[in-house]
């Protein structure tokens, strides 16, 4: 619960208003897992709270560890549903990639989560649990909403999580430590930009409308060109960062023709491009481009004024592609029933 929700709760229960901040402190600063541990609340109030509310977390049910230090955790969110969170340590940084939905409606061609279809939105509690129940919780420096699901398709719950993560009553994190990645949903995108100060990453993957539609059906509802015009109305030149994610597919979107078009459509935007290696997934006829091709692509963009990086590929030995571990687990559960 956000502080505003806690304030409504204590008001409805006849508690003093300041009790809301006390509860928030126990939840997000001291991270207790029991209402009984909230010792500066009277026994009467604790008893009342326990009648309708609970505190706690659900530990991961499975973990896969990569030789490079990456750990993929599997969390159970209902009897048959599982989501993934990936812990990525890297020198002085430790990033957690979290999920916002069970499955996804976007059905991007290159994404294993999309092959699952959509099952449910995660609650703010289920999203926060991926962070709070992480064994490496206290080592985290950054969080990225780049796991299973489309964050803007579950925006109300995601915004609650961002509030709790960044507010002084909550985790007190700087918004600069958090990035939300999206395919770009018209209504949700504008609302997110105007409501949150967290970094924004757009999944682009092609500068050509027809091809992007074949890779990402969401292009039909809100084209990247419309999206870019919307983004130009906002200031990304200061602390907040705008980036575009670009998976480089062999003989699909990896030639200099694509780099030239990217320079053209991104002109006038204060942004960066992250080139990403493709993790192959079953049943999809796409391959990742080689490093030489990606380097040439990066160098062209950078030399033409678009700051570009090649993202390090991590966890390739542990079902690295998002959605693969949860898909395998779900299939095993279904097979066990049969």
Structural key phrases:
single chain, 338 residues, 2 domains, TIM Barrel, two-stranded antiparallel sheet, ten-stranded mixed β-sheet
Structure explained in plain terms:
This protein is α/β, with parallel strands linked by helices and 338 residues long. It has helices at residues 3-12, 19-29, 43-52, 112-115, 124-132, 155-166, 186-195, 209-215, 224-231, 256-266, 291-303, 324-337; strands at 62-65, 71-76, 82-90, 93-97, 101-103, 118-121, 142-145, 178-182, 199-203, 242-247, 272-276, 307-310. The protein has a 10-stranded mixed sheet, sandwiched between helices. Strands 5-6 form a two-stranded antiparallel ribbon. The mean pLDDT is 93.
What order do the helices and strands come in, and which of them pair?
Layout: H1 3-12, H2 19-29, H3 43-52, E1 62-65, E2 71-76, E3 82-90, E4 93-97, E5 101-103, H4 112-115, E6 118-121, H5 124-132, E7 142-145, H6 155-166, E8 178-182, H7 186-195, E9 199-203, H8 209-215, H9 224-231, E10 242-247, H10 256-266, E11 272-276, H11 291-303, E12 307-310, H12 324-337
Parallel strand pairs: 4-7, 7-8, 8-9, 9-10, 10-11, 11-12
Antiparallel strand pairs: 1-2, 2-3, 3-4, 5-6
Helix pairs in contact: 1-2, 5-6, 10-11
């Amino acid at each position: 619960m956000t502080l505003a929700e806690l304030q409504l709760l204590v008001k409805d229960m006849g508690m003093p208003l300041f009790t809301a901040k006390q509860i928030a402190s126990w939840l997000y600063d001291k991270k207790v897992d029991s209402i009984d541990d909230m010792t500066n609340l009277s026994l009467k109030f604790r008893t009342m709270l326990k009648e309708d509310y609970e505190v706690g977390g659900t530990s991961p049910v499975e973990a896969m560890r990569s030789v490079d230090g990456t750990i993929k955790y599997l969390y159970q969110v209902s009897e048959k549903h599982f989501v993934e969170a990936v812990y990525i340590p890297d020198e002085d940084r430790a990033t957690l990639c979290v999920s916002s939905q069970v499955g996804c409606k976007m059905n991007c061609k290159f994404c294993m989560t999309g092959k699952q279809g959509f099952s449910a939105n995660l609650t703010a509690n289920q999203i926060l649990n991926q962070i709070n129940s992480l064994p490496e919780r206290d080592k985290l420096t950054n969080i990225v909403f780049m796991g299973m699901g489309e964050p803007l398709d579950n925006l109300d719950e995601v915004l609650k999580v961002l509030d709790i993560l960044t507010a002084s009553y909550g985790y007190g994190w700087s918004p600069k430590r958090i990035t939300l990645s999206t395919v770009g949903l018209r209504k949700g995108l504008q609302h997110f930009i105007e409501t949150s100060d967290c970094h924004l990453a757009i999944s682009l993957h092609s500068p050509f409308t027809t091809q992007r539609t074949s890779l990402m059906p969401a292009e039909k509802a809100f084209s990247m060109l419309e999206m870019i015009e919307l983004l130009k109305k906002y200031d990304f030149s200061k602390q907040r960062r705008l980036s575009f994610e670009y998976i480089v597919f062999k003989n699909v979107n990896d030639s200099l023709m694509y780099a030239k078009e990217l320079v053209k459509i991104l002109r006038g935007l204060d942004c960066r491009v992250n080139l990403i290696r493709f993790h192959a997934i079953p049943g999809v006829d796409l391959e990742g481009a080689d490093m030489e091709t990606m380097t040439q692509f990066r160098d062209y963009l950078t030399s033409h004024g678009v700051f570009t990086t090649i993202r390090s590929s991590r966890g390739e030995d542990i079902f690295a592609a998002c959605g693969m571990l949860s898909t395998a687990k779900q299939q095993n559960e279904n097979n066990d029933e049969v």
